[in-house]
Design brief:
Layout (H helix, E strand, L loop, with lengths): L1 H18 L3 H36 L4 H19 L1 H5 L3 H23 L3
Length: 116
């Protein structure tokens, strides 16, 4: 019952933002704030992981693996920064977005999996 109430509250808030006069700009503001909070949380999480694993994991990698790792992280940042531009190309842009993020994720996975 509590879950249904929470879903109804979220639904009413969404309805108010989309149906109210001027709801479009308000919805844009809410989505922008949520996106900024999401990327800030990813940044804090990445910084904490970097601080925790810097001496044992990153410094222990050879130069080639470290280069691949940092290039993959950089590619992921570029893909996130180019999200609106890629999505404006339609389905092909979305596929490119997914492929590039998949490539970056696979590179990070291979770097850490090759250690063992």
């Amino acid at each position: 019952m509590k879950t249904a109430r929470n879903i109804a509250i979220v639904g009413l808030i969404a309805l108010a933002l989309t149906a109210a006069p001027g709801g479009g700009p308000a919805l844009d503001i809410v989505l922008t704030v949520l996106t900024m909070a999401f990327f800030a949380a990813i940044g804090v999480f990445g910084y904490r992981l970097y601080r925790e694993h810097r001496t044992f994991t990153l410094d222990a990698m050879d130069d080639r693996r470290r280069l691949i790792f940092y290039a993959a992280v950089g590619l992921a940042f570029l893909v996130f920064a180019a999200t609106p531009r890629l999505f404006s190309f339609g389905g092909l842009g979305v596929l490119a977005w997914i492929a590039l993020l998949g490539l970056a994720s696979f590179a990070v996975f291979r770097v850490f999996a090759s250690r063992y």
